[in-house]
Amino acid sequence: MDLNLKATELRLGLPGSDEPADQLQSSSSHVKNNKRSCSEIDGSCQKQESGAPAQKAQVVGWPPVRSYRKNVMEQQKKPDSDGSGFVKVSMDGAPYLRKIDLKLYKNYFDLLKALENMFKCTIGVYSEREGYNGSEYAPTYEDKDGDWMLVGDVPWDMFITSCKRLRIMKGSEAKGLGCL
Amino acid sequence: MDPEPKKPEDSPSNSANSHTPVQPPSPFPDEVLEKVLSFIDSHKDRSSVSLVRKDWYNAERWTRSKLFIGNCYSVSPEIVARRFPRIKSITLKGKPRFSDFNMLPRDWGANVHSWLVMFAKVYPFLEELRLKRMTVTDESLELLAKSFSGFKSLSLSSCDGFTDIGLKAIASHCRNLTELDIQDSVTEDVGGGWLSCFPENFASLEVLNFASLNSEVSFDDLERLVSRCKSLRVLKVNESITLDQLQRLLVHAPQLLELGTGSFLQELTPRQYEDIESAFSNCKNLQILSGLWEANSLYLPVLYGACAGLTFLNLSDAPLQSGEFAKLLAHCPNLRRLWVVDTVEDKGLEAVGSSCPLLEELRVFPADPYDRHHRDGVTELGFLAVSRGCRNLHYVLYFCRRMTNAAVVTIVQNCPDFTHFRLCIMTPGQPDYLTNDPMDEAFAAVVKTCTKLKRLSVSGLLTDLTFEFIGKYAKNLETLSVAFAGNSDWGMQCVLEGCPKLRKLEIRDSPFGNAALLSGLKKYEMMRSLWMSDCNVTMKGCRLLAREMPRLNVEVIMDEESDESQADKVYVYRSVAGPRRDAPPFVLTL
């Protein structure tokens, strides 16, 4: 009996295809490679970042930005990695920052209570769907990649290793973050 | 020195001994001629003067005090020393521009040392040295520091090769130093101890820029230095200087014309906040502002008091959001030049259009050039908004992820005075995102409308048509940058045959081959240089060019993995110095 288990399998691939999704050709697929012979072998020969499918091929010296400008977002990262869990906390509207040691807290609940105390504000309750919708303030943090994330989305342990800085945003501005 | 094909010999003999027909005596005695010529500054004018007649050539060479060498390999230190006996200021440029983007192997060349050795011998009264894209070792800086007792001004732009050892020598020995300006320099960790080497009684500094060096300096020594240099007008510190430290510096130097701040993010007490705010308000002469690392809406307001007179705001190290950016701009009505990061988005550029009517130059840099974070950046809408509000715009550098022909056509109609139009659509070969057409129409409009255009960088999906238009209309074009564009040799030929003032042509990843390369035979001697990388040029074509044109240096940079018959990186330039004597093994001079 053919249960056709394959049909119920979850995998990457267009419906009907048996192969995993071909590496998507980026719009730069006609870009000449530095190695001319490469393009004769296989049209999809591109320098790919390891593991990630459908990444744009990175060409040497393109776009033409100077090395030190390369990733201004990442450039800003001076890791607060002195071994302690101290991160800076800013709150919209407050003239100066605070610092807290994430290692002192066991979970999100403790952290949020501490923040509410420190800044005399209400942050409310996190929900996966709504974020902190309805609260006056929403806690966000900057992760290792330089992205601003909503506090609470990832497991606590992952959070404390990837959190570089906290920012308590006005609830109205944080709306977008919660609805992803 | 601008070597031209029709130039007289480099070292003409005195007219008494020459075989050339005796020229009629000059109506002016030499002293008068020399006095008159001493008022001529521009090196281009001086070049023209030197071609008039032999005594003018001699008078010119004796009165020239400023030397400009746009390509250090176009001439040799010996030739320069023979021709010009009295030089006080030298500007030297080295590597081709694409070296900024890591397209040149390390140790390619442009080492300043042999020049310095000659200068030390022949120009003991040298006062100023301005280097761009050159390798400068500590040994060279030490030689510089010890050889010229009256040395005043050192500028290193996009240079590499030095550490704090060399800088220490400069600080310790140059007693009359007025300018130390280090920009965009590629340095491995240069230590910060050099700043402490300025002697205690040293007070002549007018310009100090160490913004691109990343090591911490002694703040105490910096503060003392700033407070005793009463003529300081330019101060650009690095990121290690904090906000409250900056406040103390500003209190000592409220007369500054140009300021580069350090880090702009710090826990400040309300008192410190007030102090820095008032320090900025006291800087009544500030015209140029940069730095501002990590600035955000919390601390930008401390600047407001200093912004009324600002003409150049450089936010390229401070990725701001549109809201805080717009608020800042509202305080800067006199801006002429603005550099920003594309995190301000189109909305931020709309604010530029409405707040900065006097704007002449705009540069928008990508926060995320490799598209790792999939941020929007800016689009054709932002550019349009600026062009509507800033009718004096003549210089633009714009990195974006999408553009349309229609937008560019409108933009140049709004701003027909562009002299520098550098558009970088970041995905190679990308068409008009609305119509899917090539971007030919856009650049056709640019060259047709902007008759004063001197510099053009093209991008996006482009056919040979673009180059036909450039050749036909861009009569004042001096510099052209091409990447991932064109269909055939015809495109490049149009440019080479059409643009009479072309001086620098740099091309990468475009299907131009030997026929195109060789069509420019005669032209290259009138240009500073040609760069072609990853095109369809072969060694055969390069050898042919080299054979036909002995006064050109045709250099091929060999790549380990490259095919032996292909010429992957070609650099062609005119030279009176012959082939390079210092070429590394991977640079083949044909």
From TrEMBL, chain A:
<keyword id="KW-0539">Nucleus</keyword>
<dbReference type="Pfam" id="PF02309">
    <property type="entry name" value="AUX_IAA"/>
</dbReference>
<dbReference type="InterPro" id="IPR003311">
    <property type="entry name" value="AUX_IAA"/>
</dbReference>
<dbReference type="InterPro" id="IPR033389">
    <property type="entry name" value="AUX/IAA_dom"/>
</dbReference>
<comment type="subunit">
    <text>Homodimers and heterodimers.</text>
</comment>
<comment type="similarity">
    <text>Belongs to the Aux/IAA family.</text>
</comment>
<protein>
    <recommendedName>
        <fullName>Auxin-responsive protein</fullName>
    </recommendedName>
</protein>
<keyword id="KW-0805">Transcription regulation</keyword>
<keyword id="KW-0678">Repressor</keyword>
<keyword id="KW-0804">Transcription</keyword>
<keyword id="KW-0927">Auxin signaling pathway</keyword>
<dbReference type="InterPro" id="IPR053793">
    <property type="entry name" value="PB1-like"/>
</dbReference>
<feature type="region of interest" description="Disordered">
    <location>
        <begin position="10"/>
        <end position="57"/>
    </location>
</feature>
<feature type="domain" description="PB1">
    <location>
        <begin position="84"/>
        <end position="171"/>
    </location>
</feature>
<comment type="function">
    <text>Aux/IAA proteins are short-lived transcriptional factors that function as repressors of early auxin response genes at low auxin concentrations.</text>
</comment>
UniProtKB/TrEMBL annotation, chain B:
<dbReference type="Pfam" id="PF18511">
    <property type="entry name" value="F-box_5"/>
</dbReference>
<feature type="domain" description="COI1 F-box">
    <location>
        <begin position="27"/>
        <end position="65"/>
    </location>
</feature>
<dbReference type="InterPro" id="IPR001611">
    <property type="entry name" value="Leu-rich_rpt"/>
</dbReference>
<dbReference type="InterPro" id="IPR041101">
    <property type="entry name" value="Transp_inhibit"/>
</dbReference>
<dbReference type="InterPro" id="IPR006553">
    <property type="entry name" value="Leu-rich_rpt_Cys-con_subtyp"/>
</dbReference>
<dbReference type="InterPro" id="IPR041567">
    <property type="entry name" value="COI1_F-box"/>
</dbReference>
<feature type="compositionally biased region" description="Polar residues">
    <location>
        <begin position="11"/>
        <end position="21"/>
    </location>
</feature>
<feature type="compositionally biased region" description="Basic and acidic residues">
    <location>
        <begin position="1"/>
        <end position="10"/>
    </location>
</feature>
<feature type="domain" description="Transport inhibitor response 1">
    <location>
        <begin position="85"/>
        <end position="131"/>
    </location>
</feature>
<dbReference type="Pfam" id="PF13516">
    <property type="entry name" value="LRR_6"/>
</dbReference>
<dbReference type="InterPro" id="IPR032675">
    <property type="entry name" value="LRR_dom_sf"/>
</dbReference>
<feature type="region of interest" description="Disordered">
    <location>
        <begin position="1"/>
        <end position="29"/>
    </location>
</feature>
<protein>
    <recommendedName>
        <fullName>Transport inhibitor response 1-like protein</fullName>
    </recommendedName>
</protein>
<dbReference type="Pfam" id="PF18791">
    <property type="entry name" value="Transp_inhibit"/>
</dbReference>
